[in-house]
Design goal:
This protein is an alpha+beta fold and 498 residues long. It has helices at 11-21, 60-65, 114-125, 160-163, 229-238, 249-252, 283-292, 295-301, 320-324, 351-366, 381-385, 406-413, 427-438, 443-459; strands spanning 41-45, 73-75, 81-83, 86-92, 95-100, 139-145, 148-153, 192-198, 202-207, 220-225, 243-244, 260-273, 307-309, 340-346, 369-375, 391-397, 462-474, 478-479, 496-497. The relative contact order is 0.16. InterPro entries: Peptide/Ni-bd, SBP_5, SBP_5_dom.
């Protein structure tokens, strides 16, 4: 049952939150503002840095969300490439030539040149491990002059501009690479300069007045890493933070609805069915399982209505998908008649064991006999990939760092896909996936992707149940905070606190 939006946080939660947040933003100028009257933005983020904020790790997304490090290219809402530190680009076979934006300086005052771009891309391509956007990609970069960079891949790749939009391929000043690790402190090009990092507890950013895109509206950002979800929610409620990342579903109902925004994520909760062996080798029984699932009751019961019932593998975070999708023909449902099956899932995402319990009830009602196997992800992944389960529940990101879903579809459903939990080997699916992967970016590629999705859905190898949302908290005085499904943007040059 959903709690009223005006209900106060329990006193115990507030006490715990206060203990965790005491001194979080001490010394910040948020309360009184800077000399020009602007207020600093206080941010409570969920995950602390894992790799010292190295852009070659997942920490790169923090640098992007704080608008301190930038890439050659950025993505629009459709996932198409737009200029950023590069103003234009052209393709010639395996090579792409990018024109570097003039008049850009790094936070240390040095000028952005083609050599800086080459250095950053070369460091990323040679990193171990590589940024995941470069998995399986042979990429080299060389200067074609002061303001042009030629990027070449081992195979012709229509997605090179989208790949270069990944925060893990941010362009940093030479000083970032002088030590044993890559340090973004004072080395970015964005509207905010990262000036201080306190381990895994906090970070400080100040406005960079020489930003090529125009002066930011806020004088700076004070970040605190608060892994405890209750504490983050309490920080918003008490006024300790201006922007709060990832408010838990359980806490959202306790906050003023005007302070929270639900953002569709490119993440789908899917039931993968083993097509190679066991009960679901029979297409009619896969169809029976699909017909038995009531996703709406899962959304209401587990996610308290804060998720979207799936119409396909790709959800509302990719707004073009619904417009291109057409009805899919499925096999006729067979009779389960007491067939036994085992569903696997993991505890790392708190909702999944609950989802599994509801699915067990729904499938048993349809006539299946269902056992559950629930473990930590690290202890169950190898069995899932080996096809040891009849079905597996997974919360899966449907776009990788390129903003394109073709790689996810290939990984999960191609005969040689590296994450083929369904053990699917279907020539029609393989053909559609290969076509999607080789189509030029834009409308034609989006249509090919939806055709591939339809081919997968027709097999009933995967039953998409729901699309998750992330809940962001913005205090009443916050203006211009980004609500980004890809979680690349949070604070921009236009974000400020009244």
């Amino acid at each position: 049952m959903r709690l009223p939006a005006h209900r106060l946080l329990p006193a115990t939660a507030l006490t715990a939150a206060s203990a965790l947040l005491t001194g979080c933003f001490a010394g910040a100028e948020s309360a009184t503002g800077d000399a020009a009257g602007g207020k600093r933005i206080r941010v409570a983020m969920m995950q602390p840095p894992r790799s010292g904020l190295s852009p070659l790790s997942d920490d790169a997304f923090k640098l992007s969300r704080w608008s301190t490090a930038e890439t050659l290219v950025k993505l629009d809402e459709e996932g198409d490439a737009e200029p950023a530190l590069a103003t234009k680009w052209t393709q010639s076979g395996r090579s792409w030539t990018f024109t570097v934006r003039d008049g850009v300086t790094f936070h240390d005052g040095t000028e952005l040149t083609a050599e800086d771009v080459v250095r950053s891309l070369t460091e990323a391509a040679g990193a171990s491990p590589k940024p995941r956007i470069l998995d399986g990609v042979e990429l080299t970069a060389k200067a074609g002059g002061k303001d042009t960079v030629v990027v070449t891949t081992g195979d012709e790749d229509p997605l090179v501009p989208q790949r270069l939009s990944s925060p893990q391929l941010s362009i940093l000043a030479a000083k970032a690479y002088e030590g044993k690790t890559v340090s973004p402190v004072g080395a970015g090009t964005g509207p905010f300069e990262l000036t201080k990092v306190n381990g895994t507890s906090s970070a400080t950013l100040d406005r960079y007045d020489a930003y090529w895109g125009g002066k930011a509206k806020s004088p700076g950002i004070d970040v605190r890493f608060v892994p405890d979800g209750t504490a983050r929610a309490a920080a918003l409620r008490s006024g300790e933070a201006d922007i709060v990342e990832a408010v838990p579903v359980s806490q959202a109902a306790l906050l003023d609805e005007d302070l929270i925004t639900e953002v569709p994520m490119p993440r789908t909760n899917t039931l993968y069915l083993n097509t190679e062996k066991g009960v679901f080798k029979d297409a009619s029984l896969r169809a029976a399982a699909r017909a038995a699932i009531d996703a709406e009751s899962i959304v209401k019961g587990v996610y308290e209505g804060r998720a979207d019932v799936a119409e396909g593998l790709l959800g509302p975070a990719l707004p073009w998908a619904a417009d291109l999708r057409t009805p899919v023909s499925h096999a006729k449902a067979g009779n389960p008649s007491g067939k036994s099956l085992t569903i696997g899932t993991f505890t790392d995402r708190a909702e999944l064991p609950e989802v599994a319990a509801i699915l067990q009830q729904q499938l048993q009602k349809a006539g299946f006999k269902v056992k559950l196997d629930v473990r930590e992800y690290a202890n169950i992944e190898s069995d899932a990939l080996a096809g040891e389960f009849d079905a597996f529940i997974l919360s899966r990101a449907t776009v990788l760092d390129s903003g394109d879903p073709a790689a996810y579809l290939y990984s999960d459903f191609a005969s040689d896909g590296s994450f083929n939990l369904s053990q699917l080997a279907d020539p029609t699916v393989d053909k559609a996936l290969t076509k999607a992967g080789g189509t030029q970016a834009g409308e034609a590629r989006r249509k090919a992707v939806i055709e591939a999705e339809a081919a997968v859905l027709a097999t009933d190898a995967a039953v998409p149940m729901l699309h998750e949302r992330v809940i962001q908290g913005d205090a009443a005085g916050v203006t211009g905070a980004a609500h980004d499904p890809r979680e690349r943007e949070l604070i921009t040059a236009d974000t400020y606190v009244k």
